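[step 3/7] inverse_fold.run input=structure_tokens len=323
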């Protein structure tokens, strides 16, 4: 029995309320851990309520209408306390940068609103004679200060070639793409069957685990994605301990060592974990890259992945070939 798309009433109102709470907290540089915990509980309760509504209709969040699904994914993403802290810190920095810029232009009385959310594009701005609402893609939560400043200047003053280049350059990085992919996967029902048409992820895991981790790595959940992708071939979700592999790789024309390399890369994310350096999320550390280069067919596998990215015309919004 097919389930109709579920549209949640007042979901946008609930999101706006959370955004206001985030903005209020970010406006006060002296907020404490208790306030973060309270906000975190609000996010958890909101996500749980949505999940229960879906469950009562024998459905999952993947059955939500597009708007409801995007908001649910955003709320669920921020239930991770590390992401929430980073989100708050970035919102606060964008706000201060906007205030400073408006001050330079003699517009200190401007009323500002900063929203970092699950946005379709890179950023949007709504301005009037006395107000400015800046909306930024969640993908920028880990962006360097120079990129965030470029976003603020583009939104409030106008675009420049240098700022546009800086913004688009970061939007091509794996840091940016990984956040968007994680948001997409939150509400996607991935058929967690490790057996593809040509490759079995359980068998490949056992092989890679034995060769590179001395069979010491606990097996994560392994799944093939539902669609072919040509920009990102694998993704490790730490919260679910799940690796999702692109369906593009489950092809007789793709050599086994290429699939093994992508799986190895994602297993390194599990093995090395995420490091937070000065408030920034670091996944490809020096140690990670050293381990990655230990793959016996590293150069050949990398060339194969480069070739796969040329199968389709590159999508500039998704960036370069990354795994």
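[step 3/7] decode complete -> sequence:
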């Amino acid at each position: 029995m097919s389930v109709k798309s579920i549209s949640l009433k007042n979901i946008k109102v609930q999101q706006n309320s959370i955004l206001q709470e985030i903005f209020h907290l970010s406006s006060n540089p002296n907020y404490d851990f208790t306030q973060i915990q309270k906000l975190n509980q609000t996010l958890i309760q909101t996500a749980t309520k949505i999940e229960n509504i879906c469950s009562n209709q024998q459905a999952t969040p993947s059955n939500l209408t597009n708007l409801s699904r995007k908001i649910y994914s955003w709320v669920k993403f921020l239930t991770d306390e590390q992401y929430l802290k980073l989100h708050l810190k970035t919102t606060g920095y964008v706000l201060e940068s906007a205030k400073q810029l408006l001050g330079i232009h003699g517009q200190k009385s401007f009323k500002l609103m900063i929203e970092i959310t699950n946005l379709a594009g890179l950023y949007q701005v709504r301005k009037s004679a006395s107000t400015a609402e800046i909306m930024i893609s969640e993908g920028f939560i880990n962006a360097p200060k120079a990129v965030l400043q470029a976003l603020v200047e583009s939104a409030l003053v106008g675009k420049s070639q240098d700022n546009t280049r800086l913004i688009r350059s970061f939007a091509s990085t794996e840091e940016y793409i990984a956040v968007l992919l994680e948001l997409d996967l939150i509400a996607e029902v991935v058929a967690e069957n490790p057996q593809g048409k040509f490759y079995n992820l359980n068998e490949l895991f056992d092989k890679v685990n034995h060769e590179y981790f001395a069979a010491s790595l606990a097996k994560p959940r392994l799944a093939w994605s539902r669609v072919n992708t040509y920009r990102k071939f694998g993704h490790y979700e730490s919260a679910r301990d799940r690796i999702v592999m692109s369906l593009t790789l489950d092809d007789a024309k793709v050599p086994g060592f290429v699939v093994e390399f992508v799986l190895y890369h994602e297993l390194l994310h599990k093995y090395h974990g995420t490091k937070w350096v000065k408030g920034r999320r670091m996944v490809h550390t020096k140690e990670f890259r050293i381990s990655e280069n230990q793959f016996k067919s590293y150069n050949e596998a990398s060339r194969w992945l480069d070739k796969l990215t040329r199968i389709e015309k590159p999508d500039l919004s998704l960036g370069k070939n990354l795994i």
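[step 4/7] annotate
The beta strands are 111-117, 123-127, 131-137, 221-224, 234-237, 242-245, 275-277, 280-282.
The longest strand covers residues 111-117.
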